[in-house]
Amino acid sequence: MADLIVTIDGPAGSGKSTVARRLAEKLGAMFLDTGAMYRAVTLAAIRAGADMDDEKQLLEIIRKSDFRFSAGRDKMAVYINGENVTEQIRQPEITANVRHIASRALLRDELVRMQRYFAANYEKIVTEGRDQGTIVFEDADVKFYLTADARERARRRQAELKENGNIESLEQIQKAIEQRDKSDENRSIGPLKPAPDAIVIDTTNLSLEQVVEKVHHYVKEKCSKKS
């Protein structure tokens, strides 16, 4: 297991992915984008024409597909059977269907195994997701939970989509985010919630730089006490 593990959890659009990437750069750590893993499985299932309600069929796709995740301090590249799908997994269709993967125990178990295997190969890890501090890395050195109001998160997601050439209305995005929140918070397996020992940060009125500085400060403080 890594010597330093920092987890950043939170709902869609809370800024956790961008903050995690920036923090990894500052710490010289590897960045683990667990959401990309769930999206990769979702893409593989859609391509295979799988029944998204058939857990056994979806599990078979995970086990038969060759998923590769290339670590970095900025962006994690994702491959399915040798094909780079880093951009494809961000399409709206994937966003709309990823909940089918995230809400099933057997599938989550497989993905948790992948995530822990990834962490075992590096000295320092910054990982982001929805259950990193509560399930995957319960003994992480520092845990964060980022949140923001739904409207602000929708604005952020809309800007991200525009950068990739996808146009969606703010109302559509906000509705999708609120539906995903409800699904994530109420599922029986790995529900979205802050870990008891997580540092909770509301990013609604904070700039990216302010959030990054906050989390970096907490990590440095923790590391100084640890040493």
* Pattern of helices and strands: EHEHHEEEHHHEHEHHEH
| Low-confidence spans | none
For the biggest sheet, the summary is: 5 strands, parallel
Q: Spell out the CATH superfamily.
A: P-loop containing nucleotide triphosphate hydrolases
Return the domain count: 1
By CATH reckoning, the class would read Alpha Beta
Strand elements, count: 8
Strand fraction: 15-25%
Helical residue percent band: 40-55%
Task: Write up this protein.
The chain has 227 residues and is α/β, with parallel strands linked by helices. The chain has one domain: Rossmann fold (3-Layer(aba) Sandwich), CATH 3.40.50.300. Helices cover 51% and strands 16% of the residues. The protein contains ten helices and eight strands. The chain has helices at residues 16-27, 34-47, 55-64, 92-97, 99-102, 105-119, 132-136, 150-163, 170-186, 208-226, and strands at residues 4-9, 30-33, 67-70, 77-80, 83-84, 124-129, 142-147, 199-202. The chain has a five-stranded parallel β-sheet, sandwiched between helices. Strands 3-4-5 form a three-stranded antiparallel β-sheet, covered by helices on one side. A hairpin with a 6-residue loop joins strand 3 and strand 4. The radius of gyration is 17 Å and the shape is globular.
